[in-house]
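subagent[fold] <- orchestrator: predict structure for attached chain, return tokens only, no commentary.
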Amino acid sequence: MKGRGQATAAVLAVALVAAGGVYLQHEVGPKTAAAGPPGSAPSGAWFCPHGGGTDWTVSLEVANPGAEPVPIRVRTLGADKPTPAKNYVIEAGAELLLPVPADSRERASIVEYFGGWVAAGWVAHGGGGEGGVGAEPCMPDAGTKWLLPDATTVEHEDSYVIVMNPFAADAVFSLRLFSEKPMVSTAELTNVRLKPYRSVSFHLNETLLDRTTVSTQLDVKVGRVAAATLGVSDVSGVRSTDGVLGDPPARTILPGGFDQGRTDLVVMNRTSGRVTLGGSLLQRDGDQPLGSLAESSPGADSAQTYPVMTDGPSTIDLRPDAPVAVARRTYGVVSDSGSTAGAAAPSSAWVILPAVAGAPSHGGLVLADPGDEPAEVTLSFLPLGTEPPTAPITVTVPPRRTVSVPREWVESEPGVAVLAVASSGTFVPAAASYSLGREGYATYAVSLGVPIPDAWIPA
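subagent[fold] -> orchestrator:
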């Protein structure tokens, strides 16, 4: 009887563990791993709501700055069942480019990694009469609240919100749209149910047409999702912008460069009062107050766009008197634009993924130091093939400045990820590059770097 009781208890224990695992998978979903010390075996995921369209091409960029190979698993989501998962190995100190399905607006991808850490992002090239390139890093977390500032629905501009559910349980969420006018919510945007491993797109023009600024707040009631915006313009090409997870940061650092000198700062104010937009413009020759922005005060529950004139590599270091979600939209020398949601803080080590969609290309990297001490940054390539890469270089970024990495070094390895590590100071990097066309200037894209967790910074 005693043996039978022990056996029964063991069976019940196994059943409880199994049930708990099913519950965690369905109700909570896999958790992105925190950085672990070398020698541990972490796992995590990157969420990539890249979108797509007729005859579009999208490539995932996955880079491993570590000293050991890292296995990954990739699948792409859409309106129907996801694609079968594919397994790859990212070699130590190398990068892999992975084309993924991109035949419709709602397309999104998941990159899971095991036993190490990798950086992931995407480059989307419009097709079917839609031109331009959008590039962004993928997101390390899913969540229950997203702010998506960057959208416009004026003539010749179409804007979309891409939402992905990367887990094995339904997600239920609602969207609210903000512009210069009062907030808008409709039945079609309320309590939307998204099946497991599916993604969906929302065409914002169908709800708010002819608005200079349209920003979206996404609130999740059940599950967790990841979200980004996709802009498709007859005039300014394609651009992608990550959403801001949770409450916005108190400070946002938005680097850019190699553009025509025109920048739009999109501001989404979800506070109950007006916000004063303080901060600085960090350029190669010095920093200056954002005087024109300081005179502007976006009202409560509004979204507005402000023009900023820049000259060469530049960074908007925005420090409002209350947290707001922002995006920087930069215009290239041709008819294409790039966009970034910026970084909340500088760091000492980054992976900078390329923002080019093919050859010919003109790659560009900018480094911003928003701190009070110089940043000594060593840059090295994470090669795509077996050939030895170009030798690393070191660039000094003065405090409160933005500098360009020498173009001849960047273009020696076109379309290759870069590892950037500071021996002193901290910084924020971005890729701002041209590609395609007869001379390599047909498209323009901006992509923020991916910060490396402290425990995984290479020696």
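orchestrator: received. Logging for downstream: The domain at 349-456 is CATH 2.60.290.11 (Hypothetical Protein Tm1070; Chain: A). DSSP finds three helices and 35 strands in the chain.
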